Each structure stands twice: as structure tokens, then as C-alpha cells.
Amino acid sequence: MSILTEVNTIDTTTSTEPQAINETKISSEIKTTFTSEEIQKLLPHRYPFLLVDKIIDYVPGKKAVGVKNVTINEPYFQGHFPGRPLMPGVLIVEAMAQVGGIVLTQMSPVEDRLFVFAGIDKVRFRRQVIPGDQLVMTVELLWVKQRRFGKMQGRAEVDGQLACEGELMFSLVN
């Protein structure tokens, strides 16, 4: 599994002193966004179950903010519900968990191992999510024990309105 927290950038600085020359130095900068392709390198989920389109903010070991663009083409809308499509609540929670998975997979390399749900607490649904909405999910790490178990606080919003929130527990399995 790749760890994508750092990228090398070249910083060319010019000194204003008369005898100074241009210096090129390599600096290390924290990666704060992830594309769909980068997410697929980190998470095992694939269509139709990959529910995160991009990560728009990432703070290593602390939190991630992900986006899911909800479209009428989602396979679950065919039956949930005909004539009144609503994104199932369990999939909103799963989408938040996938954003949390980005935080966990970046904390330590875990080749051939998988983080799975160990529990879900205090989950509440506050607003319906429908086709055309953009679900913005913020997941913050609360704690990790023995690098095997973790708990996160998740929050999903649409247009700044709270759609879902709750605590998500994870366990690392072989």
C-alpha cells in the first residue's frame, strides 16, 4: 500500500545579496488533497461501493475531508425509492467511514491488511441526501489503540447543512 503523505517539490530561491547565486533546495511538503486515482491506491473499495470522489483536506493523523457527488446514476436509486430517490443512510455512514479509512491507512503502512467497522455509535440522520447533492464529509480521529483499533467522529453535510453525524469504530484485520 502506498503512503501518499509527502511529495517532493523544488523551491528555487533568489537572494538579494550581490554575490549570492540561485540555490535549489528540495523541501518536503504534506499532501493535503487526494484525487480519485490516489484514493483507489489507498482503499480497497471499487465501483459501485467506492463512495468518495476526492479528498479536499487532509491533516496527517488527525482528519480528512472528502466529497461524494451524488448523482441519479447511483445503482441504489433504482430501488431506494422509485419516484423519490434518497441516498440510504447506511451508505452515508459508509462514505464517512471511507474518508476515515484515508486517515487510518496513512498512519502506518498495512500491506494486505484491512480496516473494517468495529462499531457505530450515536449516529443521527438530520437531512435527506438526494441526487444533485454534494456530500462533504469531515472525519476526525479521536483515538487509536495498539495501532489496531480506532475511533473517529464523522460529520456529513450538504450545502452547509448537517445530514449525518456519529462515531465510527475501526479494527485492523489480517
Mean pLDDT: 86
The rounded Rg comes to 19 Å
Q: Biggest β-sheet, characterized? A: 6 strands, antiparallel
Side-by-side strand order of the widest sheet: 3-4-6-7-8-5
Strand content range = 35-45%
Spans of at least 5 consecutive residues whose pLDDT stays below 50 are 1-27
How are helices and strands ordered from N to C? EEHEEHEEEE
Number of strands: 8
What distance separates the N and C termini?
A: 14 Å
- Number of H- or I-type helical stretches: 2
**Helix content, binned percent:** 10-25%
What class do helices, strands and sheet pairing give? mainly beta
Shape: globular
Question: Can you walk through the features of this model?
Answer:
- The chain has 174 residues and is mainly β.
- The chain is 15% helix and 44% strand.
- The protein has helices at residues 36-42, 89-107; strands at 6-13, 23-30, 54-59, 63-69, 114-125, 134-145, 149-158, 161-173.
- A six-stranded antiparallel β-sheet has the order 3-4-6-7-8-5, with helices on one face. Strands 1-2 form a two-stranded antiparallel sheet.
- The two termini are 14 Å apart.
Highlighted features:
single chain; 174 residues; mainly beta; six-stranded antiparallel β-sheet; two-stranded antiparallel sheet; 2 helices; 15% helix; 44% strand; globular; disordered N terminus
In short:
With 174 residues, the protein is mainly β. It has helices at 36-42, 89-107; strands at 6-13, 23-30, 54-59, 63-69, 114-125, 134-145, 149-158, 161-173.
Per-chain topology:
Blueprint: E1 6-13, E2 23-30, H1 36-42, E3 54-59, E4 63-69, H2 89-107, E5 114-125, E6 134-145, E7 149-158, E8 161-173
